[in-house]
Amino acid sequence: MFDGIKGVLIDLDGTILKGNQMIPYADEVIAYIRSLGKKIAFVSNRGNLSRRMCYERLEQFGIAATEKEIILSSTVTAQFLREHYPLCQVWTLGDEGLREELRHHQVQLAKIPEEADFLVITLHETMTYRDLDFAFRAVYHGARMIATNIDKMFPNENGNAIDVAGMVGAIEATTARKVELVLGKPSCFMVEAALRYLQVPPSQCLVIGDSTESDIRMGRMYGMKTVLVLTGNTKKSHLDTLRVKEHPDYVIDSIYDMIRLGEGECGERDVTGDCFTCRAVSLRK
Amino acid sequence: MFDGIKGVLIDLDGTILKGNQMIPYADEVIAYIRSLGKKIAFVSNRGNLSRRMCYERLEQFGIAATEKEIILSSTVTAQFLREHYPLCQVWTLGDEGLREELRHHQVQLAKIPEEADFLVITLHETMTYRDLDFAFRAVYHGARMIATNIDKMFPNENGNAIDVAGMVGAIEATTARKVELVLGKPSCFMVEAALRYLQVPPSQCLVIGDSTESDIRMGRMYGMKTVLVLTGNTKKSHLDTLRVKEHPDYVIDSIYDMIRLGEGECGERDVTGDCFTCRAVSLRK
Fold first, then answer.
1. Fewer CB within 10 Å, N or C, chain A?
2. Mind listing the pLDDT tens digit for each residue in A187-225?
Protein backbone atom coordinates (compact mmCIF):
# COMPACT_ATOMS: atom_id res chain seq x y z
CA MET A 1 0.00 0.00 0.00
CA PHE A 2 2.69 2.51 0.96
CA ASP A 3 5.25 0.98 -1.40
CA GLY A 4 6.92 3.74 -3.38
CA ILE A 5 4.93 6.40 -1.54
CA LYS A 6 6.94 9.24 -0.01
CA GLY A 7 4.31 11.92 0.51
CA VAL A 8 0.76 11.70 1.88
CA LEU A 9 -1.82 14.43 1.27
CA ILE A 10 -4.53 14.23 3.92
CA ASP A 11 -7.82 16.10 3.87
CA LEU A 12 -9.12 17.50 7.17
CA ASP A 13 -12.92 17.89 7.47
CA GLY A 14 -14.69 14.58 6.94
CA THR A 15 -11.38 12.71 6.94
CA ILE A 16 -9.67 13.32 10.25
CA LEU A 17 -12.10 15.82 11.79
CA LYS A 18 -15.87 16.02 11.89
CA GLY A 19 -17.19 19.35 13.16
CA ASN A 20 -15.61 19.81 16.56
CA GLN A 21 -14.68 16.16 16.96
CA MET A 22 -11.80 14.05 15.77
CA ILE A 23 -12.61 10.99 13.68
CA PRO A 24 -11.71 8.16 16.09
CA TYR A 25 -8.03 7.19 16.08
CA ALA A 26 -7.09 9.79 13.43
CA ASP A 27 -4.24 10.89 15.71
CA GLU A 28 -2.93 7.31 15.78
CA VAL A 29 -3.09 7.04 12.00
CA ILE A 30 -1.13 10.27 11.55
CA ALA A 31 1.48 8.98 14.01
CA TYR A 32 1.52 5.63 12.15
CA ILE A 33 2.12 7.29 8.76
CA ARG A 34 4.89 9.38 10.26
CA SER A 35 6.44 6.24 11.79
CA LEU A 36 6.75 4.87 8.25
CA GLY A 37 8.90 7.89 7.37
CA LYS A 38 6.34 9.44 5.03
CA LYS A 39 6.01 13.22 4.69
CA ILE A 40 2.53 14.61 5.34
CA ALA A 41 0.63 17.63 4.00
CA PHE A 42 -2.80 18.46 5.39
CA VAL A 43 -4.67 19.80 2.37
CA SER A 44 -8.02 21.41 3.10
CA ASN A 45 -10.48 23.63 1.25
CA ARG A 46 -11.11 25.52 4.48
CA GLY A 47 -10.77 29.17 3.59
CA ASN A 48 -12.16 30.67 6.76
CA LEU A 49 -9.33 29.51 9.00
CA SER A 50 -5.73 30.63 9.05
CA ARG A 51 -2.94 28.12 9.28
CA ARG A 52 -2.36 29.16 12.88
CA MET A 53 -6.02 28.53 13.79
CA CYS A 54 -5.92 25.18 12.03
CA TYR A 55 -2.71 24.22 13.78
CA GLU A 56 -4.37 24.94 17.13
CA ARG A 57 -7.43 22.96 16.11
CA LEU A 58 -5.27 19.92 15.32
CA GLU A 59 -3.21 20.37 18.48
CA GLN A 60 -6.35 20.35 20.58
CA PHE A 61 -6.99 16.79 19.36
CA GLY A 62 -3.42 15.75 19.99
CA ILE A 63 -2.62 15.60 16.28
CA ALA A 64 1.01 16.52 15.83
CA ALA A 65 1.57 18.89 12.91
CA THR A 66 3.56 21.93 11.92
CA GLU A 67 2.03 25.05 10.38
CA LYS A 68 4.03 24.45 7.20
CA GLU A 69 2.34 21.08 6.73
CA ILE A 70 -1.05 22.76 6.62
CA ILE A 71 -2.21 23.85 3.15
CA LEU A 72 -5.58 25.61 3.34
CA SER A 73 -7.39 27.33 0.50
CA SER A 74 -6.93 30.54 2.51
CA THR A 75 -3.17 29.93 2.52
CA VAL A 76 -3.04 29.26 -1.20
CA THR A 77 -5.25 32.28 -1.99
CA ALA A 78 -2.99 34.54 0.04
CA GLN A 79 0.14 33.11 -1.59
CA PHE A 80 -1.41 33.46 -5.04
CA LEU A 81 -2.35 37.11 -4.56
CA ARG A 82 1.03 37.93 -3.06
CA GLU A 83 2.88 36.29 -5.93
CA HIS A 84 0.75 37.28 -8.91
CA TYR A 85 -0.85 40.58 -7.84
CA PRO A 86 1.71 42.21 -5.55
CA LEU A 87 0.06 45.64 -5.85
CA CYS A 88 -3.55 44.57 -5.23
CA GLN A 89 -5.90 45.66 -2.48
CA VAL A 90 -8.35 43.08 -1.19
CA TRP A 91 -11.77 43.14 0.44
CA THR A 92 -13.09 39.93 1.99
CA LEU A 93 -16.41 38.24 2.54
CA GLY A 94 -15.52 35.55 5.03
CA ASP A 95 -14.51 34.78 8.58
CA GLU A 96 -11.52 36.39 10.27
CA GLY A 97 -9.19 33.46 9.51
CA LEU A 98 -9.02 34.48 5.86
CA ARG A 99 -7.96 38.02 6.74
CA GLU A 100 -5.39 36.70 9.19
CA GLU A 101 -3.90 34.57 6.44
CA LEU A 102 -3.90 37.45 3.92
CA ARG A 103 -2.19 39.75 6.42
CA HIS A 104 0.33 37.05 7.25
CA HIS A 105 1.28 36.95 3.56
CA GLN A 106 1.49 40.76 3.35
CA VAL A 107 -1.53 41.05 1.09
CA GLN A 108 -2.92 44.55 1.43
CA LEU A 109 -6.47 44.78 2.78
CA ALA A 110 -8.51 47.66 1.32
CA LYS A 111 -9.69 50.27 3.81
CA ILE A 112 -13.07 50.65 2.12
CA PRO A 113 -14.86 48.25 -0.27
CA GLU A 114 -14.82 50.82 -3.08
CA GLU A 115 -11.03 50.71 -3.28
CA ALA A 116 -10.66 46.94 -3.56
CA ASP A 117 -9.18 45.32 -6.65
CA PHE A 118 -10.42 41.91 -5.50
CA LEU A 119 -13.21 40.57 -3.37
CA VAL A 120 -12.12 37.24 -1.88
CA ILE A 121 -15.05 35.09 -0.83
CA THR A 122 -14.96 32.20 1.61
CA LEU A 123 -17.28 30.67 4.20
CA HIS A 124 -18.58 33.34 6.55
CA GLU A 125 -20.46 31.74 9.41
CA THR A 126 -20.80 35.05 11.26
CA MET A 127 -22.03 36.94 8.20
CA THR A 128 -24.54 39.77 8.54
CA TYR A 129 -26.44 41.75 5.92
CA ARG A 130 -23.86 44.51 6.39
CA ASP A 131 -21.00 42.18 5.43
CA LEU A 132 -22.86 41.08 2.32
CA ASP A 133 -23.60 44.67 1.39
CA PHE A 134 -19.95 45.69 1.79
CA ALA A 135 -18.96 42.82 -0.50
CA PHE A 136 -21.58 43.92 -3.02
CA ARG A 137 -20.20 47.45 -2.93
CA ALA A 138 -16.68 46.22 -3.56
CA VAL A 139 -17.75 44.37 -6.70
CA TYR A 140 -20.18 47.06 -7.80
CA HIS A 141 -17.23 49.44 -7.76
CA GLY A 142 -15.13 47.13 -9.86
CA ALA A 143 -13.50 44.54 -7.60
CA ARG A 144 -12.87 41.24 -9.39
CA MET A 145 -14.05 38.10 -7.60
CA ILE A 146 -11.95 35.21 -6.28
CA ALA A 147 -13.35 32.32 -4.24
CA THR A 148 -11.28 30.14 -1.92
CA ASN A 149 -13.58 27.27 -2.89
CA ILE A 150 -17.02 26.83 -4.39
CA ASP A 151 -18.67 24.15 -2.25
CA LYS A 152 -22.45 24.42 -2.19
CA MET A 153 -23.10 22.99 1.27
CA PHE A 154 -21.37 21.34 4.19
CA PRO A 155 -22.67 19.09 6.94
CA ASN A 156 -23.09 20.59 10.38
CA GLU A 157 -25.17 19.69 13.45
CA ASN A 158 -28.39 20.76 11.66
CA GLY A 159 -27.86 18.72 8.52
CA ASN A 160 -26.56 20.63 5.51
CA ALA A 161 -25.57 24.27 5.80
CA ILE A 162 -25.13 26.83 3.02
CA ASP A 163 -21.50 27.17 1.92
CA VAL A 164 -19.34 29.51 -0.17
CA ALA A 165 -21.37 29.06 -3.37
CA GLY A 166 -24.24 30.83 -1.61
CA MET A 167 -22.20 33.96 -0.89
CA VAL A 168 -20.84 33.87 -4.44
CA GLY A 169 -24.37 33.53 -5.84
CA ALA A 170 -25.58 36.57 -3.91
CA ILE A 171 -22.86 38.81 -5.32
CA GLU A 172 -22.96 37.41 -8.86
CA ALA A 173 -26.73 37.82 -9.07
CA THR A 174 -26.62 41.45 -8.03
CA THR A 175 -23.56 42.64 -9.91
CA ALA A 176 -23.63 40.61 -13.15
CA ARG A 177 -19.96 39.92 -12.53
CA LYS A 178 -18.51 36.47 -12.09
CA VAL A 179 -15.92 34.71 -10.02
CA GLU A 180 -12.84 34.34 -12.18
CA LEU A 181 -10.70 32.15 -10.01
CA VAL A 182 -11.41 29.31 -7.58
CA LEU A 183 -8.34 28.25 -5.64
CA GLY A 184 -9.54 25.21 -3.66
CA LYS A 185 -9.16 21.51 -4.44
CA PRO A 186 -9.11 19.97 -7.00
CA SER A 187 -7.27 22.97 -8.50
CA CYS A 188 -3.65 22.86 -9.53
CA PHE A 189 -2.96 25.69 -7.08
CA MET A 190 -3.61 23.44 -4.06
CA VAL A 191 -1.73 20.47 -5.49
CA GLU A 192 1.25 22.55 -6.45
CA ALA A 193 1.40 24.16 -3.00
CA ALA A 194 1.35 20.70 -1.41
CA LEU A 195 4.00 19.31 -3.77
CA ARG A 196 6.18 22.37 -3.22
CA TYR A 197 6.08 21.67 0.49
CA LEU A 198 6.49 17.89 0.21
CA GLN A 199 9.21 18.01 -2.45
CA VAL A 200 7.99 14.67 -3.76
CA PRO A 201 6.85 13.92 -7.34
CA PRO A 202 3.09 13.26 -7.72
CA SER A 203 3.67 9.61 -8.68
CA GLN A 204 5.08 9.05 -5.19
CA CYS A 205 2.11 10.66 -3.45
CA LEU A 206 -1.01 9.25 -1.86
CA VAL A 207 -4.18 11.28 -1.24
CA ILE A 208 -6.62 10.42 1.55
CA GLY A 209 -9.94 12.26 1.55
CA ASP A 210 -13.71 12.03 1.83
CA SER A 211 -14.66 13.94 -1.30
CA THR A 212 -14.57 12.28 -4.69
CA GLU A 213 -14.89 15.67 -6.38
CA SER A 214 -12.06 17.41 -4.65
CA ASP A 215 -9.72 14.82 -3.12
CA ILE A 216 -9.98 11.85 -5.46
CA ARG A 217 -10.17 13.92 -8.65
CA MET A 218 -7.21 15.98 -7.55
CA GLY A 219 -5.13 12.88 -6.91
CA ARG A 220 -6.15 11.13 -10.11
CA MET A 221 -5.51 14.22 -12.22
CA TYR A 222 -1.86 14.04 -11.16
CA GLY A 223 -1.39 10.29 -11.18
CA MET A 224 -1.34 9.97 -7.38
CA LYS A 225 -2.64 6.98 -5.48
CA THR A 226 -6.04 7.73 -3.93
CA VAL A 227 -7.94 6.55 -0.86
CA LEU A 228 -11.55 7.49 -0.22
CA VAL A 229 -12.88 7.45 3.36
CA LEU A 230 -16.59 7.12 4.04
CA THR A 231 -16.68 9.30 7.16
CA GLY A 232 -17.59 12.50 5.33
CA ASN A 233 -19.14 13.65 2.09
CA THR A 234 -19.33 10.31 0.31
CA LYS A 235 -21.67 7.54 1.44
CA LYS A 236 -21.51 3.87 0.52
CA SER A 237 -24.61 4.34 -1.61
CA HIS A 238 -22.80 6.92 -3.76
CA LEU A 239 -20.13 4.50 -4.86
CA ASP A 240 -22.21 2.97 -7.61
CA THR A 241 -22.78 6.31 -9.28
CA LEU A 242 -19.23 7.67 -9.20
CA ARG A 243 -17.86 9.05 -12.42
CA VAL A 244 -14.84 7.22 -13.76
CA LYS A 245 -12.60 10.22 -13.09
CA GLU A 246 -13.60 10.05 -9.42
CA HIS A 247 -12.90 6.37 -8.82
CA PRO A 248 -10.43 5.95 -5.97
CA ASP A 249 -7.83 3.21 -5.76
CA TYR A 250 -9.17 2.22 -2.35
CA VAL A 251 -12.33 2.87 -0.38
CA ILE A 252 -12.16 2.46 3.40
CA ASP A 253 -14.78 3.04 6.05
CA SER A 254 -12.58 5.33 8.09
CA ILE A 255 -9.04 6.69 8.10
CA TYR A 256 -8.37 4.18 10.85
CA ASP A 257 -8.36 1.47 8.20
CA MET A 258 -5.19 3.02 6.80
CA ILE A 259 -3.26 1.04 9.39
CA ARG A 260 -4.88 -2.17 8.20
CA LEU A 261 -4.15 -1.22 4.59
CA GLY A 262 -0.61 -0.18 5.45
CA GLU A 263 0.07 -3.48 7.18
CA GLY A 264 -1.18 -5.34 4.13
CA GLU A 265 -4.02 -7.06 5.94
CA CYS A 266 -6.27 -6.15 3.05
CA GLY A 267 -4.39 -5.77 -0.21
CA GLU A 268 -5.25 -4.86 -3.74
CA ARG A 269 -5.74 -8.47 -4.84
CA ASP A 270 -7.74 -9.66 -1.85
CA VAL A 271 -11.18 -9.43 -3.44
CA THR A 272 -14.25 -10.54 -1.49
CA GLY A 273 -17.84 -9.58 -1.98
CA ASP A 274 -18.28 -7.21 0.95
CA CYS A 275 -14.81 -5.72 1.20
CA PHE A 276 -15.01 -2.12 0.17
CA THR A 277 -11.29 -1.80 -0.11
CA CYS A 278 -11.16 -4.39 -2.80
CA ARG A 279 -14.36 -3.26 -4.43
CA ALA A 280 -12.69 0.09 -4.93
CA VAL A 281 -9.76 -1.49 -6.67
CA SER A 282 -12.09 -3.03 -9.17
CA LEU A 283 -13.76 0.33 -9.77
CA ARG A 284 -10.51 1.49 -11.31
CA LYS A 285 -10.50 -1.32 -13.86
CA MET B 1 6.08 59.38 -23.53
CA PHE B 2 8.31 56.42 -24.38
CA ASP B 3 11.02 57.46 -21.90
CA GLY B 4 12.06 54.47 -19.85
CA ILE B 5 9.69 52.19 -21.79
CA LYS B 6 11.19 49.01 -23.23
CA GLY B 7 8.11 46.87 -23.87
CA VAL B 8 4.74 47.76 -25.38
CA LEU B 9 1.65 45.56 -24.87
CA ILE B 10 -0.86 46.25 -27.63
CA ASP B 11 -4.44 45.04 -27.71
CA LEU B 12 -5.85 43.88 -31.06
CA ASP B 13 -9.64 44.20 -31.52
CA GLY B 14 -10.77 47.78 -31.06
CA THR B 15 -7.18 49.01 -30.92
CA ILE B 16 -5.48 48.07 -34.17
CA LEU B 17 -8.29 46.06 -35.80
CA LYS B 18 -12.01 46.60 -36.06
CA GLY B 19 -13.87 43.57 -37.37
CA ASN B 20 -12.27 42.81 -40.72
CA GLN B 21 -10.65 46.19 -41.06
CA MET B 22 -7.50 47.73 -39.76
CA ILE B 23 -7.79 50.91 -37.71
CA PRO B 24 -6.27 53.49 -40.08
CA TYR B 25 -2.49 53.74 -39.90
CA ALA B 26 -2.16 51.03 -37.23
CA ASP B 27 0.53 49.42 -39.39
CA GLU B 28 2.48 52.68 -39.41
CA VAL B 29 2.20 52.99 -35.64
CA ILE B 30 3.53 49.46 -35.12
CA ALA B 31 6.42 50.23 -37.45
CA TYR B 32 7.03 53.52 -35.60
CA ILE B 33 7.15 51.79 -32.20
CA ARG B 34 9.55 49.22 -33.59
CA SER B 35 11.70 51.99 -35.05
CA LEU B 36 12.14 53.31 -31.50
CA GLY B 37 13.64 49.93 -30.54
CA LYS B 38 10.75 48.90 -28.30
CA LYS B 39 9.69 45.26 -27.98
CA ILE B 40 6.05 44.54 -28.77
CA ALA B 41 3.57 41.95 -27.51
CA PHE B 42 0.11 41.76 -29.05
CA VAL B 43 -2.11 40.82 -26.10
CA SER B 44 -5.68 39.87 -26.96
CA ASN B 45 -8.58 38.15 -25.20
CA ARG B 46 -9.43 36.41 -28.46
CA GLY B 47 -9.82 32.76 -27.56
CA ASN B 48 -11.33 31.54 -30.80
CA LEU B 49 -8.25 32.13 -32.92
CA SER B 50 -4.93 30.36 -32.83
CA ARG B 51 -1.70 32.29 -32.97
CA ARG B 52 -1.19 31.15 -36.52
CA MET B 53 -4.62 32.46 -37.59
CA CYS B 54 -3.97 35.72 -35.82
CA TYR B 55 -0.58 36.06 -37.44
CA GLU B 56 -2.20 35.65 -40.85
CA ARG B 57 -4.86 38.19 -39.95
CA LEU B 58 -2.19 40.75 -39.07
CA GLU B 59 -0.13 39.91 -42.13
CA GLN B 60 -3.13 40.50 -44.37
CA PHE B 61 -3.14 44.12 -43.17
CA GLY B 62 0.59 44.48 -43.64
CA ILE B 63 1.24 44.49 -39.91
CA ALA B 64 4.62 42.90 -39.31
CA ALA B 65 4.59 40.49 -36.39
CA THR B 66 5.95 37.12 -35.32
CA GLU B 67 3.80 34.35 -33.85
CA LYS B 68 5.74 34.59 -30.59
CA GLU B 69 4.72 38.20 -30.18
CA ILE B 70 1.05 37.21 -30.22
CA ILE B 71 -0.42 36.37 -26.79
CA LEU B 72 -4.05 35.28 -27.13
CA SER B 73 -6.27 33.94 -24.36
CA SER B 74 -6.36 30.69 -26.36
CA THR B 75 -2.54 30.59 -26.23
CA VAL B 76 -2.44 31.24 -22.51
CA THR B 77 -5.19 28.71 -21.80
CA ALA B 78 -3.33 26.05 -23.75
CA GLN B 79 -0.06 26.87 -22.00
CA PHE B 80 -1.77 26.82 -18.61
CA LEU B 81 -3.37 23.42 -19.14
CA ARG B 82 -0.16 21.97 -20.51
CA GLU B 83 1.87 23.23 -17.56
CA HIS B 84 -0.53 22.67 -14.67
CA TYR B 85 -2.68 19.73 -15.81
CA PRO B 86 -0.38 17.65 -18.02
CA LEU B 87 -2.65 14.59 -17.80
CA CYS B 88 -5.96 16.32 -18.54
CA GLN B 89 -8.38 15.70 -21.38
CA VAL B 90 -10.24 18.67 -22.75
CA TRP B 91 -13.55 19.28 -24.51
CA THR B 92 -14.18 22.64 -26.10
CA LEU B 93 -17.11 24.92 -26.77
CA GLY B 94 -15.62 27.39 -29.21
CA ASP B 95 -14.35 27.94 -32.72
CA GLU B 96 -11.65 25.81 -34.30
CA GLY B 97 -8.85 28.24 -33.44
CA LEU B 98 -9.02 27.21 -29.79
CA ARG B 99 -8.61 23.54 -30.65
CA GLU B 100 -5.74 24.33 -32.98
CA GLU B 101 -3.98 26.17 -30.17
CA LEU B 102 -4.62 23.33 -27.67
CA ARG B 103 -3.28 20.75 -30.11
CA HIS B 104 -0.26 22.93 -30.83
CA HIS B 105 0.55 22.85 -27.11
CA GLN B 106 0.03 19.07 -26.91
CA VAL B 107 -3.08 19.37 -24.76
CA GLN B 108 -5.08 16.18 -25.17
CA LEU B 109 -8.56 16.62 -26.66
CA ALA B 110 -11.17 14.19 -25.29
CA LYS B 111 -12.73 11.83 -27.83
CA ILE B 112 -16.19 12.11 -26.27
CA PRO B 113 -17.57 14.81 -23.96
CA GLU B 114 -18.12 12.30 -21.15
CA GLU B 115 -14.39 11.70 -20.80
CA ALA B 116 -13.34 15.32 -20.49
CA ASP B 117 -11.69 16.65 -17.34
CA PHE B 118 -12.22 20.22 -18.52
CA LEU B 119 -14.62 22.06 -20.76
CA VAL B 120 -12.87 25.11 -22.19
CA ILE B 121 -15.30 27.77 -23.34
CA THR B 122 -14.58 30.58 -25.77
CA LEU B 123 -16.46 32.51 -28.43
CA HIS B 124 -18.15 30.11 -30.84
CA GLU B 125 -19.59 32.02 -33.78
CA THR B 126 -20.46 28.85 -35.65
CA MET B 127 -22.16 27.22 -32.65
CA THR B 128 -25.14 24.93 -33.09
CA TYR B 129 -27.47 23.35 -30.55
CA ARG B 130 -25.47 20.16 -30.93
CA ASP B 131 -22.25 21.89 -29.84
CA LEU B 132 -23.98 23.35 -26.82
CA ASP B 133 -25.41 19.96 -25.92
CA PHE B 134 -21.99 18.27 -26.18
CA ALA B 135 -20.60 20.91 -23.85
CA PHE B 136 -23.47 20.34 -21.44
CA ARG B 137 -22.78 16.61 -21.50
CA ALA B 138 -19.13 17.15 -20.70
CA VAL B 139 -19.94 19.19 -17.61
CA TYR B 140 -22.86 17.02 -16.61
CA HIS B 141 -20.41 14.13 -16.55
CA GLY B 142 -18.00 16.00 -14.37
CA ALA B 143 -15.83 18.23 -16.54
CA ARG B 144 -14.66 21.36 -14.74
CA MET B 145 -15.15 24.66 -16.55
CA ILE B 146 -12.50 27.10 -17.77
CA ALA B 147 -13.24 30.19 -19.85
CA THR B 148 -10.72 31.93 -22.07
CA ASN B 149 -12.47 35.19 -21.19
CA ILE B 150 -15.82 36.26 -19.84
CA ASP B 151 -16.85 39.19 -22.03
CA LYS B 152 -20.61 39.64 -22.25
CA MET B 153 -20.83 41.15 -25.73
CA PHE B 154 -18.70 42.43 -28.56
CA PRO B 155 -19.46 44.87 -31.36
CA ASN B 156 -20.01 43.47 -34.83
CA GLU B 157 -21.74 44.71 -37.96
CA ASN B 158 -25.19 44.29 -36.31
CA GLY B 159 -24.42 46.20 -33.16
CA ASN B 160 -23.63 44.12 -30.09
CA ALA B 161 -23.33 40.34 -30.35
CA ILE B 162 -23.49 37.75 -27.54
CA ASP B 163 -20.04 36.75 -26.32
CA VAL B 164 -18.43 34.05 -24.14
CA ALA B 165 -20.46 34.89 -21.03
CA GLY B 166 -23.55 33.68 -22.90
CA MET B 167 -22.11 30.23 -23.55
CA VAL B 168 -20.90 30.06 -19.96
CA GLY B 169 -24.35 31.07 -18.70
CA ALA B 170 -26.04 28.31 -20.68
CA ILE B 171 -23.84 25.61 -19.17
CA GLU B 172 -23.80 27.01 -15.63
CA ALA B 173 -27.58 27.33 -15.56
CA THR B 174 -28.13 23.74 -16.63
CA THR B 175 -25.42 22.01 -14.62
CA ALA B 176 -25.24 24.02 -11.38
CA ARG B 177 -21.48 24.00 -11.86
CA LYS B 178 -19.39 27.11 -12.23
CA VAL B 179 -16.43 28.35 -14.20
CA GLU B 180 -13.45 28.15 -11.91
CA LEU B 181 -10.84 29.89 -13.99
CA VAL B 182 -10.90 32.80 -16.44
CA LEU B 183 -7.62 33.26 -18.26
CA GLY B 184 -8.14 36.44 -20.27
CA LYS B 185 -7.11 40.00 -19.48
CA PRO B 186 -6.87 41.52 -16.90
CA SER B 187 -5.69 38.24 -15.34
CA CYS B 188 -2.15 37.67 -14.18
CA PHE B 189 -1.90 34.76 -16.61
CA MET B 190 -2.01 37.06 -19.64
CA VAL B 191 0.35 39.63 -18.13
CA GLU B 192 2.85 37.04 -17.06
CA ALA B 193 2.81 35.41 -20.50
CA ALA B 194 3.48 38.81 -22.09
CA LEU B 195 6.24 39.69 -19.63
CA ARG B 196 7.84 36.27 -20.10
CA TYR B 197 8.00 36.97 -23.80
CA LEU B 198 9.10 40.60 -23.49
CA GLN B 199 11.66 39.99 -20.73
CA VAL B 200 11.02 43.51 -19.47
CA PRO B 201 9.91 44.47 -15.94
CA PRO B 202 6.33 45.84 -15.71
CA SER B 203 7.55 49.30 -14.70
CA GLN B 204 9.19 49.59 -18.15
CA CYS B 205 6.03 48.55 -20.00
CA LEU B 206 3.30 50.50 -21.72
CA VAL B 207 -0.18 49.11 -22.45
CA ILE B 208 -2.29 50.38 -25.34
CA GLY B 209 -5.88 49.21 -25.48
CA ASP B 210 -9.54 50.14 -25.90
CA SER B 211 -10.96 48.46 -22.81
CA THR B 212 -10.68 50.09 -19.43
CA GLU B 213 -11.72 46.84 -17.75
CA SER B 214 -9.20 44.59 -19.37
CA ASP B 215 -6.36 46.68 -20.81
CA ILE B 216 -6.13 49.66 -18.47
CA ARG B 217 -6.84 47.67 -15.29
CA MET B 218 -4.28 45.09 -16.29
CA GLY B 219 -1.64 47.74 -16.82
CA ARG B 220 -2.42 49.68 -13.67
CA MET B 221 -2.45 46.53 -11.54
CA TYR B 222 1.20 46.01 -12.46
CA GLY B 223 2.36 49.61 -12.42
CA MET B 224 2.62 49.88 -16.20
CA LYS B 225 1.99 53.07 -18.15
CA THR B 226 -1.44 52.96 -19.85
CA VAL B 227 -2.95 54.47 -22.98
CA LEU B 228 -6.65 54.21 -23.77
CA VAL B 229 -7.80 54.47 -27.38
CA LEU B 230 -11.37 55.48 -28.23
CA THR B 231 -11.73 53.35 -31.36
CA GLY B 232 -13.31 50.38 -29.55
CA ASN B 233 -15.18 49.58 -26.37
CA THR B 234 -14.82 52.89 -24.61
CA LYS B 235 -16.54 56.05 -25.84
CA LYS B 236 -15.72 59.62 -24.91
CA SER B 237 -18.93 59.76 -22.90
CA HIS B 238 -17.72 56.90 -20.68
CA LEU B 239 -14.69 58.79 -19.48
CA ASP B 240 -16.56 60.71 -16.81
CA THR B 241 -17.81 57.53 -15.16
CA LEU B 242 -14.57 55.53 -15.10
CA ARG B 243 -13.63 53.93 -11.81
CA VAL B 244 -10.38 55.16 -10.36
CA LYS B 245 -8.71 51.78 -10.94
CA GLU B 246 -9.52 52.13 -14.65
CA HIS B 247 -8.11 55.59 -15.24
CA PRO B 248 -5.49 55.53 -17.98
CA ASP B 249 -2.42 57.74 -18.08
CA TYR B 250 -3.41 58.95 -21.54
CA VAL B 251 -6.57 58.89 -23.64
CA ILE B 252 -6.16 59.24 -27.39
CA ASP B 253 -8.74 59.12 -30.15
CA SER B 254 -6.92 56.45 -32.10
CA ILE B 255 -3.70 54.47 -31.98
CA TYR B 256 -2.47 56.79 -34.70
CA ASP B 257 -2.06 59.48 -32.03
CA MET B 258 0.72 57.36 -30.51
CA ILE B 259 3.08 58.93 -33.01
CA ARG B 260 2.02 62.40 -31.88
CA LEU B 261 2.43 61.33 -28.25
CA GLY B 262 5.74 59.67 -28.98
CA GLU B 263 7.10 62.75 -30.69
CA GLY B 264 6.10 64.83 -27.69
CA GLU B 265 3.73 67.06 -29.64
CA CYS B 266 1.22 66.65 -26.86
CA GLY B 267 2.85 65.96 -23.52
CA GLU B 268 1.67 65.35 -20.02
CA ARG B 269 1.84 68.99 -19.04
CA ASP B 270 0.27 70.43 -22.16
CA VAL B 271 -3.24 70.87 -20.73
CA THR B 272 -5.94 72.50 -22.86
CA GLY B 273 -9.68 72.31 -22.54
CA ASP B 274 -10.45 70.02 -25.46
CA CYS B 275 -7.37 67.85 -25.53
CA PHE B 276 -8.29 64.36 -24.49
CA THR B 277 -4.71 63.35 -24.02
CA CYS B 278 -4.21 65.91 -21.34
CA ARG B 279 -7.61 65.39 -19.84
CA ALA B 280 -6.62 61.79 -19.25
CA VAL B 281 -3.49 62.80 -17.44
CA SER B 282 -5.57 64.76 -15.00
CA LEU B 283 -7.85 61.73 -14.42
CA ARG B 284 -4.92 60.02 -12.72
CA LYS B 285 -4.50 62.87 -10.21
1. C
2. 999 999 999 999 999 999 999 999 999 999 999 999 999
- Please say if the pLDDT value at position B92 is more than 80: yes
Fold of A74-182: Rossmann fold (3.40.50)
Structural class in CATH, domain A7-45+186-283: alpha beta
State mean pLDDT over B5-30: 95
Q: How far is B269 from chain A (nearest CA, A)?
A: 27
Partners of A87 on chain B (C-beta within 8 Å) are 221-223
Q: Contact B180/A181, CB-based, under 8 Å?
A: yes
The correct answer on CATH 3.40.50.1000 for the domain covering B77-182 is yes
Q: Which of B152, B96, B145, B105 is nearest to B121 (CA)?
A: B145
- From A267's Cα to the closest Cα of chain B, the distance in A is 27
Q: Say if the Cβ atoms of B221 and A117 lie within 8 Å.
A: yes
B181 vs A contacts (CB less than 8 Å): 180-182, 187
Q: Name the nearest CA neighbour of A212 among A245, A255, A254.
A: A245
Alpha-carbon span A149 to A66, nearest angstrom:
23
The residue ranges of DSSP E strands in A73-195, in sequence order, are 89-93, 108-109, 118-121, 144-147, 153-156, 159-162, 179-182
